[in-house]
Amino acid sequence: MRRPLGVLACLVSVAALSAPVATAHAATVPQAACRVSVAKPLVNDDGRIQATATRRGCLFNAVVRVRVKRAQPGADPVVKSGARKSRNARVTIALPCKPGVYYAVATDYRGHSTKSRPVRLSCHPTDTPTDSPSPSPTVTSVPTPKPTTTLTPRPIPTPTKTSTAPPSDTVGSAEENEVVRLTNAERAKDGCRPLKHDAQLRKAAFGHSSDMAVKNYFSHTSQDGRSFLDRIRQAGFTGGSGWAENIAKGQRTPAAVMSGWMNSSGHRANIMNCKYNLIGVGAVKNSQGQIVWTQVFAAR
After folding, report:
1. Measured between alpha carbons, how far apart are the two ends of the chain, in Å?
2. How far, in Å, CA of 104 to CA of 67, rounded?
3. Cα–Cα nearest to 254, from 293, 221, 225
4. d(CA 278, CA 289)
5. pLDDT of the chain, 300 residues: tens digit per residue
């Protein structure tokens, strides 16, 4: 029996405020002028309703508040509210899901206010369920040639709560670099230039895989609320004009995870985006022996 692949894709670009494909999540990036934006509510990987407001390009502190409202006859009640004071901030709130029509409202108490369009939620995550991820289904494909370079084998690490990236005089482990090689092989078919394995992006990818493995969750949003772009910046990566992230869990080999990603429209779009020129890959085993994979892309 073919079973669903536990994978997620996430994309953000300075040229767009919404995802270009249905299975990719979108995030807001800094703008030149002070503005507040709010994403429409969605059902996250934990089965909860989530809404995020962002304040960017502002010079003065303000309280940013995001409210989730349920549409119904009469006055629409606020079912969840959260706030944070900062010059520039992202506020994410989540609440138990009940089917219905919801929308989000964001206000920064300096005259900026916006609301999302209403969306009907059925309390089913929009991405593949992640409570029981499994290896990708068998796909008939042309075998990929073996790498022409010699890779020094190193076991995929099993994290502890203090996991750090293993020391290396090159960027990434043998398995991680094989994912990079397979990614570049796919990109070459469309004439895209090869991606360089960047040490800072690899740090961000490895850190997220390790965190998901240790804390037993599967999401583009860290449990402390950080987005993939937050993790990229915290790894020391500066500049750039576009970023994306793919994650997966349960695939046993680089070839298996690449096959799964390439057979998913959102993940394939990230891999085959010719504007990206840098990549970071992290692979970490969780306590059940499953490999948690993260790919991070950037254009700079």
Report:
1. 43
2. 6
3. 293
4. 29
5. 444 456 566 665 544 333 333 233 323 333 346 788 899 899 887 788 999 988 877 767 788 889 999 998 888 899 999 888 877 778 899 999 889 999 999 988 777 789 998 989 888 654 333 333 333 332 322 333 333 333 334 456 665 443 444 444 579 999 999 999 999 999 999 999 999 999 999 999 999 999 999 999 999 999 999 999 999 999 999 999 899 999 999 999 999 999 999 998 889 999 999 999 999 999 999 999 999 999 999 999
Q: What is the CA radius of gyration of the chain?
A: 20
CA distance 63 to 109: 6
- Name the E strands within the chain: 6-13, 24-26, 35-38, 42-43, 48-56, 62-70, 78-86, 89-96, 100-107, 113-115, 119-121, 196-197, 242-249, 278-285, 291-299
Structure token digits, residue 113: 């206010």
> What is the rounded CA–CA span in Å between residue 106 and residue 81?
10
d(CA 148, CA 160): 34
DSSP 125: -
